[in-house]
Amino acid sequence: MRKQFIVAVLAGLALSGCSTTPSDNDQTDSGQTTTYRTGDLPFSYPESLLTGYNSTECLKWSDSDIVATDKLFLFDAAGMGAKRSQSLALRLDKEIAKLSTSMDWAAYRWVNSLPVINEPNGAALFADSLITLDRGIGTARLNIAEVNESPGLFDSMILGQSTEKVDVLQYVLPGFTPQRDWRAPAHYAYKHFLKLPRKERVEAVRRFNRLSEFHVSTDPFDILPGRILVCVHREAGKDGNAEGHDLGVNIRLGATDQEVRSALVASYQAVRTQSYGQLESLVPEWFLTGQRVFHGGGRIATVEEGMFNSPINSHGTSYDKKPDNYPALSGLAYRYLGEANAMSLIASLLDAVRYRDMPDVGRNERQQMRYFTEAFDDRMKGLDGGPLTVRGFDYGWNGFIGTLE
Q1: Partners of 243 in beta bridges
Q2: Which of 84, 109, 233, 304 is paired with 188 by a 20 to 30 Å CA distance?
Q3: Is the residue at 322 inside a domain?
Q4: What is the Cα gyration radius of the chain?
């Protein structure tokens, strides 16, 4: 485990001096990209969920094509042009692949590709809502455009509108037949929906959204991409040159690879915890910062440098002033965890603070942090194999760190 962790550090540091700003001579001969126009996106652009200081800048992409790889959608709000956008998308695709390996992300989907309304299980929610809608209205009359299909100059010209009476279940899920037994109809709608290819699921949600207008108690669904949203912009932001949020990253043109990798890790933290803008209230700063520094290729403090200065602050009081090397100290703390514990266990600390596991979230600051603390105290070990707690790691900092080579 120790050897693998050190290899990950060296790999990150080797990449930290590069710039993510592509030149006009960048090659795109490896990997593949797909270009979309706005109306052709295979999801609904979730403007209401886009967060970050630069989110306003990242909505100014509508006149540009959107470049996609199998891992991301890149929105050009910086006016880079097609060639540079494709080059940058491919480079980011590679960075995501590297981070996915070093951070034990292989079994984790970045964003739930099913439709969600800020809920952990979008498919189940969708099935319940569909059955509720069917019971509420049963059928609906939809306006259907009458189209002239004859060839010629005015091919596919819209002639007018007519209405079509549709059954809710058959319209939203063609071919779905509810079974009659002890299980609720939503159970079968859920199973049917999951068997559909992604494109058909998206269309089913769009049909549901159309019918939901007829039922005041039914909310429409946002359709999320199942890939990272990357926005490239030119304006200086309050949070550095790159920032992570629940759906991806906002990158200022000219950001370094290290800044972008750190933002990708921050986005991963937000998505994995399903924190919806409250990540810093749920996970301690030293852990978030340390994970971003370590996997982003930032500077990690030496053992000698950090021997008598713990970044953990387990007593919970405010720092009068953080040391200038606080990020490097946090990186050292995270390095220790990786030397002593499997990466899958470290990753699971983020899982412990998901909203669905937190019925008391929001009562007070200490209450919000306790889920992380309990998971840490239950899982983590020291290099000697003994149990490690957050408080013990802080109070015995120099003894623990002193065992690192």
Answers
A1: 250
A2: 109
A3: yes
A4: 25
- Return the exposure string of 328-362: e unless at least 16 CB atoms fall within 10 Å of the residue's CB, then b: bbbbbbbbbbbbbbebebbbbbbebbbbeebeebe
> How far is residue 270's CA from residue 264's CA, in Å, rounded to a whole number?
10
Helix or strand or coil: residue 399? helix
Q: Which residue has the tokens 């790999």?
A: 11
129: in domain: yes
The span from the CA of 181 to the CA of 60, in Å, is 51
**Domain count within the chain:** 3
Do residues 281 and 403 both lie within one domain?
yes
Read off the tokens for 320: 């009068």
Assign 249 to helix, strand or coil.
Answer: strand
Measured at the CA of 299, the angle between CA 317 and CA 275, to 5 degrees, comes to 50
- Read off the pLDDT of residues 121-153 as tens digits, 9 standing for 90 and up: 677 888 888 999 999 999 998 876 644 444 444
pLDDT in tens, 273-292: 877 677 888 899 999 999 99
Residue 27 lies in a domain: yes
For 31, the domain range is 23-113+224-273
Phi, psi at 310, each rounded to 5°: -80, 140
Q: What is the CATH number of the domain that holds 232?
A: 3.40.30
Instruction: Give first-to-last CA distance, the chain, whole Å.
Output: 14
Alpha-carbon separation of residue 292 from 4, 53, 138, 335, 372 (angstroms): 18, 19, 50, 11, 17
Helix (H, G, I), strand (E, B) or coil at 381: strand
Together in a domain, 282 and 266:
no
